Amino acid sequence: CESFDARSGHVRTTWSMTTVLLLIDPGSALSALVSYDPARRVVLEKAKIPNDDVFECIKNNTTCGHLVIEMAESFGAKVWSQVFETVWWTGRFTEAWVRTGRPFSRMVRREVKMALTGSARAKDGQIRNTLIDRFGGKEKALGKRSNPGPLFGITADCWQALALGVTYSDQQGW
Predict the structure, then answer these.
(1) Are 114 and 121 in contact (CB under 8 A)?
(2) Widest CA span of the chain, in angstroms?
(3) How far, CA to CA in Å, does 40 sit from each of 20, 52, 125, 151?
(4) pTM above the 0.70 mark?
(5) Helix, strand, coil % over all residues of the chain, rounded to 5
(6) Were both Cys, which of 14, 42, 83, 112 would link to 79 (CB 3.0–4.6 Å)?
(7) Of 139 and 11, which is predicted with more confidence?
(8) Which whole-number Å values give the CA distances from 5 to 22, 31, 90, 108, in the listed order?
(9) pLDDT tens for each residue of 16-26
């Protein structure tokens, strides 16, 4: 039971809450990869790894039911070659996922910023703080090495990947 919007790449599902999401914040050489279970609100895996390794992870993934990947967005300004490289990898990752026969969604960062903070001008730190608040505050969400919380150990671009998953889950009404 799902509907697909070919223009945006969004799939609206009525799946059970057991769907594990594979979340990717792509980069030109390294990409952040997070697997997230929205039903339990648990990050299962997280890493920032070389794109060739991300590609292999996608091809060999058997645990995630839906991919959510960040898509580049044009703002009309000059861009560097790294942006084109990132767009190229985004396409490779999506194509590899499509070959698995499982659904995917694309999301631009502005959409995530608006959904989580209410501002298209939000910075990465604000998104991180919003996620920490949504998971119970710093002490509960992050925890300590001796008693880790559900977001313990998330760093750098993995926060942005997780933000994709939380936004997608909200959009699905999970």
Answers:
(1) no
(2) 48
(3) 10, 30, 24, 12
(4) yes
(5) 40, 25, 35
(6) 83
(7) 139
(8) 19, 26, 18, 15
(9) 445 899 999 99
